[in-house]
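User: Run a structure prediction on this.
Assistant: Running it now.
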Amino acid sequence: MKPIANVISPKVNYRSLPILECGEPLVSLSNLSSKIKVHPFYHETNIPGALIDCYLREGATAKLIEAAALLPEDCFFVVLDGFRPYEVQLELYHMIKQDIQNRGEVHSEEELAKEIAKFVAYPSPDVETPSPHMTGGAVDLTVAKEDGWLDMGTDFDYFSDKALTAWYELNPMPTDQELNIRNNRRMLYHAMTSVGFANYENEWWHYDFGNQRWAMQTGQVAFYKGKSALS
């Protein structure tokens, strides 16, 4: 299986890119396919306002089904989050900000903002400048077998360098466990990117389609604006 490229996103404000909204509805990811299971992580962990199901735009959902079909027969996707209301994005932003402040590793507001931005997009209620998950074009997911989730090296939402998608590509002499982790990440990465998703390089679990971050990484035009609700 091909290595994961060590991608570095362009240093541009992706939220300044134009969006030609296509009007696709949000679709529930439950009961779509035996190759896609839903585990609404933020609802399960009692984040205020988190949804009991996971949703993506119609086109992104079709791409996810394509990607799932590329997995080995005994593997399936576990979707942890998709469309995210503004209120949930705001709550997560404040939680991560507090966590970083508690560590005492940054000493200025500028450093704090940069550190937060690695892990959670700044919440905006403006549909023209949305965080990726507010568009319905971003999905957080992992891969599992019937006996459990595959080892990806970190938990979901584990914010350290080990969460970088290509982290396990950097070790020239991996242990057997690290080799297994590397191959599991490659499986997820290649299934998703081969159908048109773009990975966010700081998070092995995060993939975009149709939104401004995807447009920045692919050179295409975004077609998913933010949505304020499921409707």
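The beta strands are 26-28, 36-38, 55-57, 76-81, 138-145, 148-149, 198-199, 206-208.
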